[in-house]
Amino acid sequence: MTERKEIRLAGLGGQGVVLAGVLLGQAAVDQGLYAAGSNSYGAQARGGGARADLVLDNQEIDYPHVEQPDLLVAMSQGAYDAYASGVADGGMVLFDSGLVTPVAPHDRYGAKVTAMALEEFGSRQVANVLWVGLVAGVTGWFDSRALEKTMLGLVPERFAELNKAALAKGLQEGRAWEVA
């Protein structure tokens, strides 16, 4: 990564949006980048809107807020509807094609991530880690070793192997997407 990047992850409370943002931000720092992040979520514990914003750069960050994300990950239709139009020119929108119907003119890439989490791992709880792998695979902005190390430090040990497998699957799927 050679220049400032803005990432917005958005979905619903209970989808692991905030943890995915923390994981990406900490991994970026661990690989030597600067990162600034913020989170917001509704008053409801589950089901309300949730958002994690990240700013990454290879130099100190003087403005830590996301204004026009280079990458939006929309984990719900509401998140897509709220944020897709604000993506920077040339930006990418990744969305859960099982939950979101896209309409914006940006580069868009869909995968049934929640369904994949259920079918391949028996748990929708790993969908956020699948997303982290997809983001890293598609963008090439993250070191996979830093992601795995960071992830293992953030998830309970009893779920470590499940999350390692989900991260590997996300990376594999993301790298297979041919993004210009």
From TrEMBL:
Q: Which Pfam families match?
A: POR
Domain Pyruvate/ketoisovalerate oxidoreductase catalytic, which positions? 13-172
The GO terms describing molecular function are: oxidoreductase activity, acting on the aldehyde or oxo group of donors
Q: Which UniProt keywords apply?
A: Oxidoreductase
Which ranges does the record mark as transmembrane?
none
| UniProt keyword Lipid metabolism, yes or no | no
Tell me the protein's name.
2-oxoglutarate ferredoxin oxidoreductase subunit gamma
